[in-house]
Amino acid sequence: MGSIVWNLENCVNTILDIIVIKTGIVISEDYLIEILNHDFPNSYFENYSIRKNNAVRIRSEKFDEICWSVRKRLGELEKNSPLFIQNIDKILVWEEQGICYSSLCRKILQMMSDIYNPNNPQFIDPKPIIDQLVSENEYPIEVIVEAFKDILHNQTMSNTIKPVEEILWDGGISLSDLFEKEHIPLKEDEFIDQKFINYLQANPEKLQYMHWRNFERLTAEYFNRQDFEIELGPGSNDGGIDIRVYNTTNKEKPYIIIQCKRHKESHEVKIETVKAFYADLLFEDAEKGLIATTSKIATGGKKAISIRKYPLNYAENKEITDWVNKMSKR
């Protein structure tokens, strides 16, 4: 592979363009440089403000590595895996059976190329291609599916911005929204954007810094995905109850009431908060109460729950991180 020689500032701007479109998350140049200096210490990006007008030579494979690393840090990629074939052992078994996997992949790519209209770029529906390949009865269905998985993986890993990606790009969401203000997702059935969940899964230390209202939304989304009916409070003047969770079979009273405490990890939820929340639970006649926090419950609060047998549970930083891991998807 060859090298690219260019102005460092142009290089950074190109990386930023790729990252924003591929991840759907809009970040600042300063944050990009912070990530690059963390992941690639003592590299071209050190003292960027001073060196940005300098010329740099970057090999194309190194440029890909840089882009993959940032995309992973933003939560879009789960791992850096540039190999086209993901399960080489399975492919070798098929090759021994006389199935030419590479020929199938080339055939699929040609079929996709025949469908693609450069004058009207659109994502290609794989179903008609799969149906045709199955009807031809030349390759087993599991081989066809594996080939599509590898092709999709290759396209996902590509750092080339395709015309269809530019046309269909929705402008992305600003990462700063996660920390600075309430962000309402475009999808009505979601409480928080999936891109933010993926980002938090890749950066769990950022949970304690997210906007308190978005933490409430994250908590609501966790229970929403368990098929409960969710009532997210107004965010202020809510009487200490941020979320009401209802069983679909009984909507007369809450099954769980939740109070969310987005604190820094060093800031414990005090016993007074626990006692006050128990009073809220009695007033609501809910079956259970839950305090969800990015920090932890003070020892006195935990003892009060245990000794007085309050029907209260708590989810501390580790449990919240587990929630995020369960909700992440790519």
From TrEMBL:
Q: Name one GO molecular function term.
A: DNA binding
Record's superkingdom?
Bacteria
Question: What are the Restriction endonuclease type IV Mrr domain coordinates in residue numbering?
Answer: 208-304
An example Pfam family from this entry, by short name, is Mrr_cat
Task: From the UniProt record, give one GO term of the biological process aspect.
Answer: DNA restriction-modification system
Which residue ranges run through the membrane?
Answer: none
**Protein name according to UniProt:** Restriction endonuclease type IV Mrr domain-containing protein
Q: What organism is recorded for this protein?
A: Myroides pelagicus
